[in-house]
Design goal:
heterodimer; A: mainly alpha; four-stranded parallel beta sheet; 21 helices; 6 strands; B: alpha/beta; five-stranded parallel beta sheet; three-stranded antiparallel beta sheet; 17 helices; about 50% helix
Chain lengths: ~425, ~400
């Protein structure tokens, strides 16, 4: 009680840091709570339950784009099942990962370890494989896993998770024949099977509010163990939640979220965006303003290459403009140093105000641009060619160059005029 | 006297022990409803005592094997057919019947060895497996080979029946393993019958060397894919007296599957799924609707669905690629050209044009879910993009969406 009183004194300062901590965890930590896809989740749950209770062998594929919650679904199902005693005692879970278990030998070794075969405990096996496992030599592991699922041996349930829609076409014909063709698709924004049908964007708004809200009463943060060091004052919490609620009805905010939703529907990038916004909270900055979100969204929407161009020297900018003219005139044909040099030299000669530099310096600038991978060497060229004559492709669009010219601080007028002229 | 020590190392543990799996703590639940019972019978692993629709092939194999066993002469047979047509099950059934004959005393006893090319890490491991099933010791393949060679060059009292599944995986460049497996039966002393199973009909001519093909002989048997009547009969025979499955529903499954592959596994899996769907809505009979739902779940592709659930900009990007394909009438599109189309499509719809970085990210996402096939992204705006869906699918998916909203 005494402690609480102390907290009330520096109520604001302490609260905002705790809030930030809480929100960051809520946004970034993997949850086992799963939203939507009720039907798909039921399907997986029933499948695993039947495998364990009735000893039925099964195989299924969980398919959905990246960040659509495949692993979260699986974790939430396993968490629910592990609270059932009969499941915990009779099932053995084996996790395989296509990027970790890069060949059959590694996968087998790890499966043996996870099944604790030497002192044999469990009876059931669950595997998850990514697309990489299907690229293995002969697909032996997959064949054997599916073959066990198709013959009267130990009951096994093989669950595969991948983001490739055409994963079945990768399977070898007898592996494909042994697979049960149970495909469960997870598409983001599919709210058709949730309790209250809403449009996909409304759901996004709801998620926005949910992720930024503080728990209503103190008991909530006690339930989840990972939050137990963040006890937030209920009075402050309700004030905060009121404010977040007002954010959702803010027109600028809604437009911003709408634009982001139009670009990318996956929840993961949305959470990343929120994390950036929440990180701006500090003792000096006590509230999430709409502007914070606008700034955070800029990080996701900006063109990285244009940003990179702003850091180049004027000479390098001139070369970039020369390259842009060169590609426009010759319609995307590859260019080499000589061509760029000539074009730049012509420009310098016409404008007496630009200080001319020597060829080796220009070469150096050209190499710098090359190292930034704004130029890509044309494949199949031989390395014996002198570097002045090597051909490159210019990896910027004219629009990007123009944007950079516009944003470049203190670019000489002649140069920006040259960039605008169609030569 | 001698003092018995407890074994110190784990290596002692690895000898003479039968591998065992952990046991359950509670007993399995028995199927409680007739529907569940029928479903467990429909599982692919529940192979029936006699396979329906394979009587002719069974007789062929059975008489061949019985004849060879009675004559005590060696021989080979090659069985081919697409996956899921009952090859291995038929051979196993024939062997089971032969075993029954031996137990009745009508036939001399024989050894039975079965290996599977897909279950071996390396073709030469087949020697080890064969010896293990004959004798029971695990040795290196060289030793195993020597022992087997000796065994088949001496007169045996017993016949040996060897089943080689997935023969094509035993074919290496040198083909020494296949050669040996097929050469032993030609020895008068060996008394070995080899049954080989593979998928392709012309494997001996296409892959195997001349001398191996010659030893394989011309006794061959092809398993045709099941037609719809046979698939129907298979499912009906497994259902037995369960009458909850309407016969037209079974027929629908059979016709759908026979049109694609004639794979019995597929038909059984679809029926099982249909029963699950019926069970989830607490029905006792499986209607045509359940089957249609199961079929669409297990056969139909979800590409149209995937496009529908893409973000708006991803959809526009797909549209711009299809526009570029129509413009150039070349299927491969450069990213920069697609971006140009995207710019015009966006300004047409009055949407803010995404930056090149954002569009590259969109392209990467679509490439990861394989709606597009993209080149390596190091080629940046010069990467070539190929549509992995038909242009009609894109139009269909996006048009339907516009009507809805």
């Amino acid at each position: 009680m005494n402690k609480k009183k102390n907290m009330a004194i520096d109520f604001q300062d302490n609260m905002i840091l705790l809030t930030r901590k809480y929100l960051k965890r809520k946004i970034m930590c993997p949850e086992t709570k799963f939203r939507h896809h009720v039907k798909e989740r039921m399907h997986v749950l029933e499948l695993l339950k039947r495998t364990v209770d009735m000893g039925e062998s099964n195989s299924a594929l969980l398919i959905g784009p990246r960040g659509s919650g495949k692993t979260t679904l699986m974790n939430s199902v396993l968490k629910e099942l592990s609270s059932i005693k009969s499941f915990k005692e009779n099932a053995l879970i084996v996790n395989l990962h296509g990027l970790v278990h890069t060949d059959d030998r590694l996968a087998l070794k790890d499966a043996t370890r996870q099944m604790q075969l030497e002192n044999a405990v469990g009876e059931k096996v669950f595997g998850t494989f990514a697309e990489n496992l299907s690229e293995h030599h002969n697909q032996t592991l997959l064949y054997n896993l599916f073959d066990i699922a198709q013959s009267a041996q130990a009951p096994i349930c093989v669950i595969g998770m991948t983001c490739r829609l055409d994963v079945i076409e990768l399977l070898e014909k007898r592996v494909k024949s042994r697979f049960s063709h149970r495909q469960i698709f997870l598409f983001p924004g599919d709210t058709s099977s949730s309790e209250q049908p809403t449009t996909a964007f409304d759901d996004r708004l709801e998620l926005f509010q949910h992720l930024l809200s503080l728990p209503d009463d103190e008991n909530v943060n006690r339930i989840e163990q990972q939050y137990d060091d963040c006890t937030i004052d209920p009075q402050f919490g309700s004030m905060w939640n009121e404010y977040i609620k007002s954010l959702v009805s803010n027109a600028t905010m809604v437009n911003l979220l709408k634009r982001m939703y139009q670009m990318d529907v996956s929840e993961r990038s949305f959470r990343n965006f929120l994390a950036v916004a929440v990180s701006t909270l500090s003792e000096k900055h006590q509230r999430l303003e709409v502007n914070d979100f606008v700034e955070a969204s800029k990080i996701f929407a900006q063109d990285d290459k244009v940003l990179m161009l702003e850091g180049l020297s004027v000479l390098e900018m001139c070369l970039i403009i020369a390259m842009k003219h060169e590609t426009e005139i010759y319609d995307g044909e590859p260019l080499n140093f000589e061509a760029v040099y000539n074009r730049y030299f012509k420009f310098v000669n016409q404008n007496s105000s630009i200080q001319s530099v020597q060829r080796p310096v220009i070469m150096k600038a050209f190499e710098h641009i090359k190292n930034l991978e704004i130029l890509m060497p044309v494949s199949g060229m031989n390395s014996k060619v002198e570097k002045e004559y090597q051909y490159y492709k210019f990896l910027l669009t004219p629009q990007q160059v123009m944007d950079a010219v516009k944003n470049y601080p203190g670019l000489p007028t002649e140069v920006s005029q040259w960039a605008l002229s169609s030569v | 006297g001698t003092i018995l020590n407890t074994p110190k190392s784990r290596s002692l543990k690895l000898k003479n022990l039968t591998p065992s799996m952990g046991k359950r703590n509670s007993t399995l639940m028995k199927p409680s409803t007739p529907l569940q019972e029928a479903r467990s019978r429909l599982h692919v692993s529940a192979v029936p005592k006699s396979l329906p629709c394979r009587e002719e092939e069974f007789n062929n194999i059975f008489t061949f094997l019985k004849g060879k066993l009675e004559d005590k002469s060696g021989g080979c047979i090659y069985i081919s057919g697409v996956p899921g047509t009952g090859k291995t099950a038929t051979v196993n059934e024939a062997v089971r019947c032969l075993r029954k004959l031996t137990s009745k005393g009508q036939l001399d006893d024989f050894d039975y060895v079965a290996i599977n090319g897909m279950k071996l890490t390396e073709p030469r491991q087949s020697y080890v497996q064969i010896l293990k099933q004959l004798g029971g010791k695990t040795v290196t393949w060289e030793q195993a080979y020597r022992v087997l060679e000796k065994r088949f060059h001496n007169v045996n009292s017993k016949m040996t029946l060897l089943l080689v599944d997935e023969l094509d995986f035993l074919c290496t460049k040198r083909q020494d393993v296949v050669y040996n497996l097929l050469d032993w039966p030609t020895k008068a002393t060996a008394q070995l019958i080899v049954v080989t199973i593979a998928n392709t009909m012309d494997l001996p001519e296409r892959v195997l060397m001349g001398r191996v093909t010659s030893r394989l002989g011309l006794t061959r048997l092809t398993f045709q894919p099941y037609n719809y009547k046979q698939l129907q009969e298979i499912v009906m025979s497994r259902l037995k007296e369960f009458d909850g499955f309407r016969s037209e529903a079974v027929q629908l499954v059979a016709r759908k599957v026979s049109a694609v592959s004639g794979d019995a596994r597929r038909a059984l899996d679809i029926c099982r799924r249909a029963m699950e769907i019926a069970e989830s809505r607490n029905a006792e009979t499986i209607s045509l609707q359940d089957v249609t739902e199961a079929v669409s779940e297990m056969i139909a592709s979800a590409k149209v669905q995937a496009i529908k659930h893409c973000s708006k900009m991803e959809q526009i990007f797909l549209q711009s690629i299809s526009a570029e394909v129509t413009r150039t009438s070349i299927e491969e599109v450069y990213f920069k050209d697609a971006y140009k189309q995207l710019e015009s499509l966006c300004s047409f719809d009055g949407i803010e044009i995404p930056t090149v970085s954002e569009t590259l990210a969109i392209c990467g996402r679509l490439g990861a879910s394989r709606l597009l096939i993209c080149e390596h992204s190091r080629n940046d705006i010069y990467q070539k993009i190929l549509l992995n869906v038909s242009i009609d699918d894109i139009h269909y998916a996006i048009q339907e969406l516009d009507f809805n909203s």
